[in-house]
Amino acid sequence: AGLIEILALMMELNNDDNIQKNAPEMRYVNLAVRIISESYSEKLRISDIADRVGINRSYLSNLFKQEMGVSPQEFLINFRLEKAAKLLKETHDTAGNIAAAVGYTDALAFSKAFKQKYGLSPRNFRNSDTGSLS
Questions:
Q1: How far is Cα 23 from Cα 113, in angstroms, rounded to an integer?
Q2: What is the pLDDT of residue 13?
Q3: For the chain, does the N or the C end have fewer beta carbons within 10 angstroms?
């Protein structure tokens, strides 16, 4: 899912009924999403996110999967790759610089993850006519 779909899902999950039923759980998940969106470019481990949220890592992972349909790690990877795709289309920065900007310290690992998600290398993605970033 793209960032817009994820945000729409979060808004849907935050309707009044769900807030009443799952208020603490949704607060944890929302806080984790906010931490990811603000810190994705840094070295970020799921245990660090859980510590910042104030719950243990496995509880965060379970809540995240239940509420978002993906693990926090998958969410973080997808978030980073979507940011990278946007940067590839909107800037002339090198793939290596973009990898670093979205939190990858290893350009090869970035390229492999990017190709797995989009079916194209970062360079080929940039040069493609792909309008959709999902």
A1: 34
A2: 60
A3: C
pLDDT classification of 18: cutoffs 50, 70, 90: very low
Instruction: Please write down the long-range contacts of 62-71, taking CB distance under 8 Å and 24 or more positions apart.
Output: 63/25, 63/28, 63/29, 64/29, 64/32, 66/25, 67/13, 67/22, 67/25, 67/26, 67/29, 68/6, 68/9, 68/10, 68/29, 68/33, 69/9, 71/46
Alpha-carbon torsion (16, 20, 24, 29), positive or negative: negative
Give the integer Cα–Cα distance in Å for 50 and 55: 5
Position 39: which residue type? S
Question: Alpha carbon 64 to chain centroid distance?
Answer: 12
> What is the pTM assigned to this prediction?
0.80
How far is the C-alpha of 134 from the C-alpha of 128, rounded, in Å?
A: 14
- What pLDDT band is residue 23 in, cutting at 50, 70 and 90? confident
